[in-house]
Amino acid sequence: MSEQQHAEILVALSDIDLSILRLQKQVDELPHKAQIMDVRQRARELEVRAQQVQKMAHESARTLKLLSDETELNETQIAQVQATLDKSSEYRETAALVAEMEMLAHRKAKLEEDSLVQMEKQEKVATVEAQVAGVARKLAQEEQAYTEAYRQVGGKLKQDIADLEHARAALVAGLPKAMAERYTKALKTKAGIGAAHLTGNQCSGCHGTLSEGQLAKLQEGPPVGECPNCNRLLVTTGSEKPQAEE
Ligand SMILES: [Zn+2]
Q1: Whole-angstrom Cα distance, residue 77 to residue 89?
Q2: Is the pLDDT of residue 244 over 90?
Q3: Most distant CA pair in the chain, distance
């Protein structure tokens, strides 16, 4: 292959690599990615809330169990005192038993009241628990929808990138090994531009203006030279075209 053909390959390769870079940027900036991160963050915050609510539910259930146990004991005691009272005929004993009965009845009323309060609390906690679970389901659905959209749009872009990668591999194969390696190295280390071309007296890679002497030397040289500023491969012929936008 002639040096002129190498120059043309470098120009075509630069165009393809620029397109790949832009597509990759689009993939990275897909809005779904940020949306997925946002939904995950909200889910994490909700999980903290869910744990708090669960703890409240456990505490409420525990308190109700204690109240229920004490109510049972209270009822047994009332029954016992009542049985003793039924058999008692002695005045002082009866008076003491009645007093104890009153105390137990008072405690019974208090236990009923406390149980009611606790049951109301338990209901409220259950309502909040159901709300939290509902929001969690909604967030999971949202994440799934965003992930699906990301897969579809991102998949199309990635396919386009793969097609371009295929085309660039064919072009790279047409270059001398050393030139291909130099191009690839510059592509990675020099802002995604592996080879530059001359636009007037400017290098498209570093946008440096060449002196008349440098320009004359390049134009006398082979179609693929080197930019004296950025040291990129510099296509000096047949590549006059508008400056690529950054
Ligand atoms: Zn340059």
Answers
A1: 20
A2: no
A3: 134
Alpha carbon of 180 to ligand 1 centroid (Å): 18
Report residue 60 as tokens: 């409420």
Ligand 1 geometric centre to CA of 211 (Å):
12
Q: What is the mean pLDDT of the chain?
A: 92
Domain boundaries, the chain: 26-171, 176-235
Tell me if the pTM is above 0.85: no
Q: What percent of the chain has pLDDT over 70?
A: 96
Q: How far is the CA of 216 from the centre of ligand 1 (A)?
A: 15
Nearest to 138 by CA among 244, 25, 17, 42: 42
Cα 211 to the center of its chain, rounded Å:
51
Cβ neighbours around 78 below 10 Å, total: 16
Token look-up 């539910």 returns: 57
- Summarize the confidence of residues 157-184 as an average pLDDT: 95
Reported as a pLDDT band with limits 50, 70 and 90, residue 28 is confident
Kindly report, residue by residue over 189-218, the tens digit of the pLDDT. 999 999 999 988 999 999 999 999 999 999
Using the mean position of ligand 1's atoms as its centre, give its distance from the Cα of residue 233 in Å.
8
- Sheet (strand 224-226) strand order: 202-203, 195-199, 233-235, 224-226
Find where tokens 């006059």 sit.
240
Q: Which fold has domain 26-171?
A: Helix Hairpins (1.10.287)
What is the C-alpha separation between 131 and 124, in angstroms, rounded? 11
